[in-house]
């Protein structure tokens, strides 16, 4: 990931050489989207509003915390949301599959299990998002599609794009020359843009990930304020789309960090944590769901919660009121 970041987030000779492939990739993505929009490829509309959360860059931008925030926000206003996800990294062979807080991340995917742990609503995984969404009806009256911006087979009522406020769009090129899954023009068509960290640009809603109390992985009833670790040197382990964000967050909270970055969705084994110095180990909440089987008393994880510009919630409700399915009131 560090090497990819170096090339994707700067202008360099390798990215220049890869530009012909990037142009071809852009052309194919535009053609694919055009086939769905023209009706050549089928788009299925379900009997409930669909809110899609996604991004146009490869790597983590903060979609999962926003999905959790949306589920809580909608429930507080009388909706009965359900979440659908690909279940990326999971090995189950049968879909759609309901995900529960005690589901095996190796089977269902780490993000899906995290969503089931944090959200008091149904979570369903399937590569085919339409099948997952239909399975949640009629028990749910609104669907949140996690990482669904490029999955056009499911009709959507609201599209929310999450932007990494620190890294933005890198060198502005499509894969493989840059980090873009779709051309930047795609952002003109989404309903809402959320900027995670950094400074929100015009037309973007600001989001911040605020740390909660640290939790002990071996005994989750045991918590500590993150400030109590200030000044301590810790091993920081992260297998997320942008590990640097997690490492920098710990440093900003006063910890001295020894970095251990792994590929996104990496399946940890106990040997990955044999640092042989007895220092505290910190990891993300997404990684923690995979490491519980071999947790030790000095393993901790840091949950976060999304804080959004209050105007975002008001704008979302306004969009929901315009959907033919009808507004929901608490």
3D structure, described in words:
By secondary structure, the protein is of the alpha/beta class. It has 2 domains: 2-208 and 307-321, Rossmann fold (3-Layer(aba) Sandwich); 213-302. The protein has helices at residues 2-8, 13-17, 19-38, 63-76, 105-108, 110-118, 129-136, 243-252, 285-291, 310-321; strands at residues 50-54, 81-85, 97-99, 123-125, 142-146, 158-164, 192-196, 204-211, 214-216, 223-224, 233-238, 256-261, 281-284, 299-302, 304-308. Strand 13, helix 9 and strand 14 (299-302) form a beta-alpha-beta unit. It is globular, with a radius of gyration of 20 Å. 41% of the residues are buried.
List keywords for this structure.
330 residues, alpha/beta, 2 domains, 9-stranded mixed sheet, 10 helices, 29% helix, 22% strand
What is this entry, summarized?
The chain is α/β, with parallel strands linked by helices and 330 residues long. It is 29% helix and 22% strand.
The number of distinct structural domains comes to: 2
Shape: globular
In which order are the strands of the major sheet placed? Answer: 3-4-2-5-1-6-7-8-15
Q: N-to-C terminal Cα separation, in Å? A: 44 Å
Question: In this structure, how is the largest beta sheet organized?
Answer: 9 strands, mixed
Q: Give, in order, the helices and strands.
A: HHHEHEEHHEHEEEEEEEHEEHEEH
- Give the radius of gyration: 20 Å
Q: Enumerate the spans where pLDDT stays under 50 for 5 or more consecutive residues.
A: none
Query: Strand percentage, roughly?
Result: 15-25%
Structural class: alpha/beta
For the record, the CATH class of the largest domain is Alpha Beta
Beta strand count: 15
**Helical coverage, percent range:** 25-40%
Overall residue-averaged pLDDT value:
93
> Which topology of the largest domain does CATH recognise?
Rossmann fold
Number of helices: 10
Name of the CATH architecture of the largest domain:
3-Layer(aba) Sandwich
